[in-house]
Structures are given as C-alpha cells and as structure tokens.
Amino acid sequence: MANIVVSGIRPTGNLHLGNYFGALKSFVRMQEENECFFFIADYHSLTTHPTPGDLHGNVKTVLVEFLACGLDPEKATLYIQSDLPETAELYLLLNMNAYIGELERCTSFKDKIRTQPQNVNAGLLTYPTLMAADIIIHKAHKVPVGKDQEQHLEMTRTFANRFNRIYNVEYFPEPVAYNFGENLVKIPGLDGSLKMSKSDNETSAIFLADAPEVIRKKIMRAVTDTGQPDPSKPRSQGVENLFSLMRYFSDAFTLETFKSAYATGQIRYGDMKKQLAEDVIRFTTPFREKMLALAADESYLSKVARMGAEKAHASAAKTVREVREIIGFKHF
Ligand code: AMP
Known about the structure:
This protein is mainly alpha-helical.
C-alpha cells in the first residue's frame, strides 16, 4: 500500500531557487510514489492577522507557483486548508487533550513570545494541535519536514498516541519524517551566505517569478572578491557561491571555462555573472511563463481548488466520523 504523505505549505512569499531545489523537486517526485495531500495552510497564517485581500492573494500565489513547479492535481490532492472545515473540528477535539504546559514548552512558541510579544495569541499556542489535526486527519504515515518542524511532528505523534491510548484504540498511525535522503541540496545566496533565503535581504534570493531584468540586476550585484583574483588563495565564499550556482544552471563547458580562468588569475567576475544570469534566466523562464498563464486562468484555479477540496473531504470526513464514534458522540 502506498504511503500517505501530508505536507502543509505556508502561504507566504514567492518560491526562490533554494525552495525549488530543496523542496519542490522532491514534492514533485513524491507525488509519483505516494498518496500525497498538499495543502495551503491559510488557517495557520491567521496567527499573523493578514488583511482579507492579502490572505486570498497569498493563497493564489502559492497555488499558482506550486502548479507551475509540477504539482499535479490529478496525482496529488492539492487543497486549501480552510476548504476543509473538518480540520477545525479535529483541532477542537485534539485541543481537549493537549496540555498548556507542553504547548508552552514548544520552541517555536517561545520564539514567538520573544519576537512578537504584542501578539501572543491562542492560535500560536495551539499551532501544534492544528498541525497535528492537518496530518492525522488523513491518517498520514509520512510528513516532509524541515528542521524547524521536527518538534511539531514529535508533538503530532504525542497527540495521535494519546488519542489511541485514551480511547484504547489503534486508530491513528504514528507519522514519521519523510526522508529526502541524498536529494538534500543547499542553494547558496547571492550575498555570500551559505543558504539562499528570502529573509536575508532583498538581493540574496532569486525567485522563480523574477523577470529577466531583475535576475540580471541581482546577479550583477552579487558579492565576489575585491581586487585582483588570486588563484593561490582559497575562493571567497561569494565567489564559491557563483561557482556553485553555475554547477546548477550552466553547462559543463561554461563551468570549466570559468574555473580555468580563475586558476590562471584571468577571470572577470563581470563576464561570469553575465553568463550565469543568462543561464539562470533560461532555467526560470518556463516557470515564470507558466505562472503568468496560470495566474490569469481563474476558472482553472477554481477547478483545481474544488477538485482538491472534494478529494480531501472524502478522506477527512471519514476520519472525523470515526473519531466522533470513538469519542462517544451519538445521534439521537
Ligand atoms: P522556507 O521558505 O525557508 O521555509 O523553506 C521552504 C523549503 O525550502 C524547506 O524545505 C527548505 O529546506 C527549502 N529551502 C529553503 N531555502 C533553501 C536553500 N537555499 N537551499 C535548499 N533548500 C532550501
């Protein structure tokens, strides 16, 4: 039997090259081998109080970008979290057995208290129960998680096991982390950082949606050495990053050409950047074109969302019905 995989996607910002190689490519492969549920976590995003306009806009951006990257609504169940109110019911039920102490001890909650003391709401405290509901509502076996989500997954196991124990059933499986194995890659930033990240600064990350002129500008400004390149010294991190990016986006001949130019001290970073920019643009252009087409096709997006909601509902409604029975709710 295929594994059931559930993954939530934050409706924030655009996908950069790091997100694509570090996560999206694996998602696209995952949908071939597993029964996948990918949802856009718009209930979760309410902890930051978005405006109604932003909320919908952010969800649409993510839906468009994930479809453009190859998530296939015929293969995976791709849905919007708030289209599945069963999640809210399971969240309520799980909260009855989630203890304030364990929620307060959660690292991400403690971080939020520190970073946004003016907005410590109950949604933040119970973020792990909502995440548990998202996962176990489909009786998931596997969850692709980054380092920052490992503790939440541990809490999901705790809540699932606790439910089984309280009601003396073996109902919820224990979800484990999906292991990407050898596919873990790290795309470096243009600012000399080891990992491309949208939060570093405006110019560190290249987004799949960036227009060609934006990509050229960002790459031309990328950090390199100052002064004359010295092949006898190890490459600076900025220069190393440009070579790493070339490995992903340029052909082998181009990479070799610039490597030997570096080795003989004749490299011109301006030329290297110009070449890299064109190679990155060649890579991102099909994604950007797909995104533009999808964003303009409201009827297709609405069909995708409806289809996802229906498939997710079929799975979730069964779980909630069975959970209600186990708990002892009975209709008169
Ligand atoms: P984030 O937007 O930082 O939460 O990242 C979403 C996903 O993209 C996570 O699975 C990250 O591991 C992955 N990711 C983010 N930045 C990079 C990067 N520079 N290289 C590889 N993977 C990344």
